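ok so i was messing around last nite and threw this chain in just to see what happens. nothing serious, just curious
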Amino acid sequence: MTVVYPRKLQSSLGSLSARDVMKQVVRDRDIHLITLNRYRYSEQRSCKDLTTLIEQLNGKPAELVKDLSRHVSDEARHAMWLTDLLVDLGSSVGTPPGMSYIEEFERLLDQESPSPESLDDFVISSLAAINVTEKRGCEYFSGHIHALKHAPQTEENVKIRETLERILPEEAAHVRWGNRWLAQMADKSPEHRAKVEHAKRKHAAIEQAAFESGMDITAGAELRRVGHLLDIANTLPAWQRPQYLMERLPQSLLSPDLQRTRLDAIQRVWNRDPQAFVERFVPMFLSGLTRDVNGKKPQPNKASAANAAAN
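result:
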């Protein structure tokens, strides 16, 4: 069965791994605390979403409801640990600023409801959605811990690392039980296996789009969002693609959340360091114009490369 892993972040600086990103995050205390608050918000929100899923399943299959209930317990504990940590550090535990990864993920999903005739389809779709987001979480918790081990070993950094090290094993366990459930569903029949493979591809595309939308505020981000939307549509049956695109295209092109995030970032950087705003933020923002809709920087052709070498 196909194994799906989260892809790297495509940015104006090139392709960045979780370790690359977190290495920069831990150097700036304000950004570091906002990142921790995003973790807290995601864990807290997961409790709500998983509880809704349990209610939709209405007790069937019972073993899945049992696993999901334990999952809720884990996520609530993680939210509690992160809330305690942030309060101890004197940081905000309000709704974090900027684009919401969870809300963007849900916006890009097809809203499905279970029925006796399509319960397996609903279970497969739900499991694939949970599994791909948990994998992203594990990747970034691991990258964060690695960055903290190589950062100055201040009391604050040690406390943050120890909290994340308590959370990561349980997040990894969530990925394992998701993999196990998807494998069990695939083993029911060749038709089920095909549905699992399709759900994994579809939700991987949705997760990548949601992830990058929260990280990309540079010029041209709207067009890259449309590119991701097309990637998702291409995983759907041909007759579903027009409706999917028409329902989500306006929000991708004209996102108020994106504009608010941009303004907030501009204000933060300007207030902290006007010189850095001019020398670093503005060039970074404009560099988005040199990226294609898939978030990749254009590669120079042989002639331009030769001219650059000659100069």
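not much to say yet. The first helix runs from residue 18 to 25.
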